[in-house]
Amino acid sequence: MGGVGEPGRGPGPREGPVQLGAPLPIYRWEQIRAHDLPGDKWLVIERRVYDISRWAQRHPGGSRLIGHHGAEDATDAFRAFHQDLNFVRKFLQPLLIGELAPEEPSQDGPQNVQLIEDFRALRRAAEDMKLFEADPTFFALLLGHILAMEVLAWLIIYLLGPGWVPSTLAALILAISQAQCWCLQHDLGHASIFRKSRWNHVAQQFVMGQLKGFSAHWWNFRHFQHHAKPNIFHKDPDVTVAPVFLLGESSVEYGKKKRRYLPYNHQHLYFFLIGPPLLTLVNFEVENLAYMLVCLQWTDLLWAASFYSRFFLSYVPFYGVPGALLLFVAVRVLESHWFVWITQMNHIPKEIGHEKHRDWASSQVGRGTAGGAGCSGGPARSQWARRDGTDARVRIPSPRPSPPPTCPGSWRLPATSSPPSSMTGSAGTSTSRSSTTSSPLCQGTTTAGWPRWSRRCVPSMASTTK
């Protein structure tokens, strides 16, 4: 066998895809780790090394989404984000440049091997039980009751007049309808309702555009990144909210740099005045419109225009333009409260910080772990136990007995004590890897949480994990 990086000769990077029948060059993680730069991206799938530097711009989900996994093992992400793996693998072959050296681990950086194995076994069991096969009838009824609520709200105003009581009742019904639309379009965006992805995308455009006034591409662009790298700054748009709010490690950074744009010691109070009321009314509306205009999503813009035309043509005759605008704002504010409390209950309590390059299962189950980043307890080990001490096939984390974690608020689990109520993956310490946060796509987010647009835009309608 030749040297690492080139078959038959000395070490060195190989240029271009591997020819059919030719021996595969082997690479070590220290070589792969260097290829996580703009215009120079490698990733590993099923122990094979792929150079996606040029092809990333053609990725259906956008270059930013696939670029988040640069210089990482993307095996589980690859399986989660694509429905027909055999079809997608055809596009991988021209990008193949080598494979991991036999002595190299499949994952670079902190990993919980047992959790990864359990996660993959759980996924196989769920697939065998056909738990990912949705019932279209249920979602048809969901759409039906959304449309029924839209009609009911209009009938209340039509029959009872635009008084305060009918208007309040109509606003509540419309807010519930709008909130249910978020749930329906979310599942459609994951291509988890119909067997054909195209049907899911068309249905999502109808729900998101005609029923909500938003862009389906804009939502998928944000949401796919969230699933790829949950709670990671500059990769998950949902947690990049500084300097308005400081979450996780951003509070430490701002404290060290003595940045104080707002009274952050009182953000738990002004959160209720800014976050829940204004998320969909201000942040989403502005970001959504900017995305459609800059990324030239004219179809989505027409869908959104159809929503606003329908809404104001329906209610301006009763309220006039000012009254219809007030009703629209009231519905958006009520809907925003619903959206924030439902979605952020499992976001903000988790660990939020910079990229730690953890394995897929640990990042998805929950980033906060005993002895995790910032703690001195080190990686967690696992044991089989129930709260009453009996054996069970539910894996819970147990930190190594010595030394105990020293972080405030962390926990230590003696051999005879009860485990915590939530299961988390292992953490470990961060590695000194390069991490990029920019990409030449209409896709960036600044530290202020607002889009940093460029001139090139790619639709992000890829299938994702269910």
UniProtKB/TrEMBL annotation:
Keywords: Fatty acid biosynthesis, Fatty acid metabolism, Lipid biosynthesis, Lipid metabolism, Membrane, Transmembrane, Transmembrane helix. Residues 359-466 are annotated as: Disordered. Gene3D superfamilies: Cytochrome b5-like heme/steroid binding domain (3.10.120.10). SUPFAM superfamilies: Cytochrome b5-like heme/steroid binding domain. Residues 385-394 have a biased composition (Basic and acidic residues). InterPro entries: Cyt_B5-like_heme/steroid-bd, Cyt_B5-like_heme/steroid_sf, FA_desaturase_dom, Fatty_acid_desaturase. It comes from the Eukaryota. It is a multi-pass membrane protein. The keyword Nucleotidyltransferase does not apply. GO terms for cellular component: endoplasmic reticulum membrane. One of its GO terms (biological process) is gene expression. The chain crosses the membrane at residues 164-184, 269-292, 312-334. Pathway: Lipid metabolism; polyunsaturated fatty acid biosynthesis. Residues 408-440 have a biased composition (Low complexity). Residues 24-101 form the Cytochrome b5 heme-binding domain. Residues 398-407 have a biased composition (Pro residues). Residues 368-377 have a biased composition (Gly residues). Its main location: endoplasmic reticulum. It is found in: Endoplasmic reticulum membrane. One of its GO terms (molecular function) is oxidoreductase activity, acting on paired donors, with oxidation of a pair of donors resulting in the reduction of molecular oxygen to two molecules of water. The keyword Metal-binding does not apply. This is Fatty acid desaturase 3.
